[in-house]
């Protein structure tokens, strides 16, 4: 007898392989004592879809003796139990069903939550990142090009995953939901989803090998190493002023400035005359600036003069050499005439 009890209550190798017995109406013949009720708000853009599929929603929930109400004025979905409801947990399932419908999950996938072995998880992802640009990049990384990454996550975890706004909705078996949550949270923490996808694929293959059942799989799984990537520095760096405990001096008011310049004591006519004079001076200055700009077009450009070679007065021919040359030429001429 002791061996039998220890076998039933002892540790289990694979808890996911245990089959949970099905809950039937015979297990709860007296029904529920009190009515339970849940309401969920939905956005305006889901109104048309909910109108179309609402008869199907009521039909599915009627099988479990749950009443569903659609309030288009307040924009809410309400579910509540009846006297015939025998499953105490079905109201929680119905509540999750309404949440998924409001989060843009199609009716075919959302209705799977009502099964015992299927659950749902709505993961908020907007709290992981502060900047909107990085949030959009990481959310797109989770989806992947043409939704390839999301499809691979669905195939490995056997869950339906939908990325919508600031949340990720997942519907599937409880083991797959844990894996989906880990992948989504790691992605928003700047760990690429391919690391988790690869590890899931490797684990699936290793489970088939009975020799590696009792060994550690760490040597086969990919490890993520964070790298300090140099980021772009801002072009304009704001220099901080030295800290002083004293507050900055209070700026002078308009009346203080008029008192300092003496304008406060002038009469209204004098003030007008002063303003007029300042205005005229300003106009004259602007007029001069405009005239100078107009004259710029008529000023001829300065010509580039080439550097002239300086002419020297000194003779370039050596006179002594020239005399010797002439004497030699005359001697040669005399010799020619004598011969």
TrEMBL record:
Coiled coil: none
GO cellular component: small-subunit processome
Keywords linked to the UniProt accession: Coiled coil, Developmental protein, Nucleus, Ribonucleoprotein, Ribosome biogenesis, RNA-binding, rRNA processing
Compositional bias (Basic and acidic residues): 278-307
Pfam families the UniProt entry points to: KH_KRR1_1st, KH_KRR1_2nd
Keyword Methyltransferase: no
GO terms (BP aspect): rRNA processing
Domain K Homology residue range list: 117-189
UniProt-annotated location(s): Nucleus, Nucleolus
Chief site of localization: nucleus
Any GO MF annotation of the entry: RNA binding
Biased composition (Basic residues): 228-242, 322-331
Renumbered residue ranges of the record's region Disordered: 223-256, 269-339
Record carries keyword Cell membrane: no
Function: Required for 40S ribosome biogenesis. Involved in nucleolar processing of pre-18S ribosomal RNA and ribosome assembly. Binds to RNA. Required for female germline development, cell viability during eye development and for survival of dividing cells and epithelial cells during early wing disk development.
Assembly behavior: Monomer. Component of the ribosomal small subunit (SSU) processome.
Family classification: Belongs to the KRR1 family.
Protein name: KRR1 small subunit processome component
Lineage of origin: Eukaryota, Metazoa, Ecdysozoa, Arthropoda, Hexapoda
């Amino acid at each position: 007898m002791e061996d039998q009890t220890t076998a039933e209550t002892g540790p289990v190798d694979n808890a996911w392989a245990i089959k949970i017995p099905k809950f039937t109406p015979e297990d709860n013949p007296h029904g529920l004592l009190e009515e339970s009720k849940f309401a969920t708000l939905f956005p305006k853009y889901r109104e048309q879809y909910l109108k179309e599929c609402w008869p199907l929603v009521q039909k599915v929930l009627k099988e479990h003796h749950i009443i569903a109400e659609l309030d288009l004025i307040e924009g809410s979905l309400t579910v509540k139990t009846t006297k015939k409801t025998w499953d105490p947990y079905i109201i929680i399932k119905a509540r999750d069903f309404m949440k998924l419908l409001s989060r843009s999950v199609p009716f075919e996938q959302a209705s799977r939550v009502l099964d015992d072995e299927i659950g749902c998880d709505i993961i908020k992802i907007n709290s992981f990142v502060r900047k909107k640009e990085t949030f959009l990049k990481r959310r797109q990384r989770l989806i992947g090009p043409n939704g390839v990454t999301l499809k691979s996550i669905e195939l490995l975890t056997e869950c339906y995953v939908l990325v919508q706004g600031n949340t990720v909705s997942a519907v599937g078996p409880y083991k797959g939901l844990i894996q989906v949550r880990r992948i989504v949270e790691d992605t928003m923490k700047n760990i690429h989803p391919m690391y988790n996808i690869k590890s899931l694929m490797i684990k699936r293959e290793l489970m088939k090998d009975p020799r590696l059942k009792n060994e550690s799989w760490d040597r086969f799984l990919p490890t993520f190493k964070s790298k300090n990537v140099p980021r772009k520095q801002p072009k304009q760096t704001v220099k901080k002023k030295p800290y002083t405990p004293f507050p900055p001096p209070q700026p002078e008011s308009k009346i203080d400035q008029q008192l300092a310049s003496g304008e406060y004591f002038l009469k209204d006519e004098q003030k007008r005359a002063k303003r007029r004079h300042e205005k005229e001076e300003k106009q004259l200055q602007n007029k001069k600036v405009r005239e100078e700009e107009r004259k710029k077009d008529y000023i001829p450009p300065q010509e580039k003069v080439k550097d002239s070679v300086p002419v020297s007065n000194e003779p370039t021919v050596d006179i002594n050499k020239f005399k010797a040359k002439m004497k030699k030429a005359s001697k040669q001429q005399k010799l020619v005439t004598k011969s």
